Amino acid sequence: MPLLPRRQPVGLPAMVQDFLPAAGESAPETLQRGIDLQRRKRFREAEFCYQTVLRRQPKNAMALNLMGTLAIEAQRIETAIDFMKRAVKLEPGNAIFRNNLGNAYNLVGNIEQARKQLKKAIELDGRLVEALCNLGKSYRSQLEGDIAEGFYRRALAVDGQSLTALVGMGELLTDMGRQAEAVECFGRAIAIDKANVEALSGLALARRAVKGDPALALVRGRLELPMTTDRERVILHHAAGKILNDQREYRLAIHHFARAKAISGNDFDIALHTRLYDSFIETFDAGFFEARPKFGNPSERPVFIVGMPRSGTTLTEQICASHHDIHGAGELPTIRSLAGELGFDQLDPAIFAKAMAALTPAKARELGSKYLDHLNKRNGKAACVVDKMPHNFELLAFISLILPNARIVHCRRDPMDNCTSCFMHNFSDTHGYNADLTKLGQYYRQYDRLMRHWAKVVPLAIHDMPYEKTVADFETQARGLIGFLAVEWDDACLRFHETERTVRTPSRWQVRQPIYSSSVERWKLYGDALDPLRAALGPLVQP
């Protein structure tokens, strides 16, 4: 089962025969050779070593575990889980194998299995720092910051010099709005290793840089090291851009953001994406919904905040979550997962459209109830639970059928400001449209087109939350939002920046500040560097 020839990390070097195991080499020696090669990012040779052992010893648990770690390098997480499960089955008392399997489950979002394996690893070895940190990461991913902090503190009690624990704690504290403590953690990590990419990036994101900030020199120095991988260069260019942006060096900042995107090399297919939206607009017209009046679960608890990323979705959720009877659940993958049962994740858009047309009232209710079960695990008491996955805007037709009484809050922002802000953030590969300014502008136009269609045909309650109006007249907009959610007013919503909760989005720093308007028309600071975006947005740009 070769891993890397099919999907290789960028810049993977050609295999070198001299690195491969010699005839007669023992299995432990070959595995150690593979480990050394993997650490040097010689992935093909490492795989050859592990596979050599498995050909002779198919039940070698260490070789299976190492193949799993290599599969993670190749971004083939399900394959990694398969290898690691086999290793754990062979050696159930091995804490390291349990930890690695738990980490892999974390990566695919299987929180239940991740925690099961990680807790077992800690039971086997209470001083295994990696397992403590991975369990902390699991709770952090579910916005359970207080529990996550406990595991990171346990890890630091075992090893106060652990870079994994220091960086993990720093990222968590940033999520929790405790910037000064986060900066201290990242600083401790950098004092141990000035070239640690995650610590340098975390420090850049955790606070506003001032002129002469020494972190910029460290970031630039790390960029110049030949050992720096393309993935690391993307992170570092974003960090440099953030620091320079803080220092009002806007032209230099946008250069670094552009370099990061160029290195990422994402090949997002805007034509295929456009055909997907074409199929939605063609299939899901007003008549489609009129023919399906009594579908889904009638609960009024779900609230969906949708829109482009960086359009004010986190601010809007923070206003809601400051209310005593509203729970902010963060960005949930649940709706997209449920839509996947109808083929939403297939390349052929006709599959999902046909499945939606064939959806029965019973199946729609079942899917709606599944979603509510997930919400209840997050919070079973609040009058409203907010799901702020921005890209759920694509699935308003699906939401309408399975949760007809859900409320939709649509966050809108000036297209140039919105897209510029997206471009300056290091989103995951799923945001491939963010790869360059032209595709970003084209994607925004498709988003705008689809939302205009939904507004005409989808029988859901939709409330617009324009970013510019929100920062200009905050109280009026906040009161309108809470009124739309049909709960009584709570003055805490005006003090959203004081609300203590874990926030895991690029806006986590901003929502800790009182309302400000400096992000309005910010795109003008970057001059002609944004000309490709302006051209791609075309008529959506205000004259």
Brief descriptors of the model:
TPR_rpt, 26 helices, mainly alpha, TPR repeat, 543 residues, protein-tyrosine sulfotransferase activity, P-loop_NTPase, five-stranded parallel β-sheet, 57% helix, Sulfotransferase, disordered N terminus, globular
Architecture overview:
Helix 8 runs antiparallel to helix 9 (163-175) and helix 22 crosses helix 23 (437-457). The radius of gyration is 24 Å and the shape is globular. The chain has helices at 27-39, 43-56, 61-73, 77-90, 95-107, 111-124, 129-141, 145-158, 163-175, 179-192, 197-206, 214-224, 230-246, 250-264, 270-283, 286-290, 313-321, 334-340, 349-357, 361-378, 396-402, 415-423, 437-457, 467-472, 474-484, 531-537, and strands at 302-306, 326-328, 384-387, 407-412, 461-466. The protein is built from 26 helices and five strands. The termini are far apart. It has a five-stranded parallel β-sheet with strand order 2-3-1-4-5. With 543 residues, it is mainly α. It comes from Mesorhizobium mediterraneum. This is Sulfotransferase. TPR repeats lie at residues 61-94, 95-128, 163-196. Pfam families: Sulfotransfer_3, TPR_16, TPR_8.
In short:
With 543 residues, the protein is mainly alpha-helical. Helix content is 57%, strand content 4%.
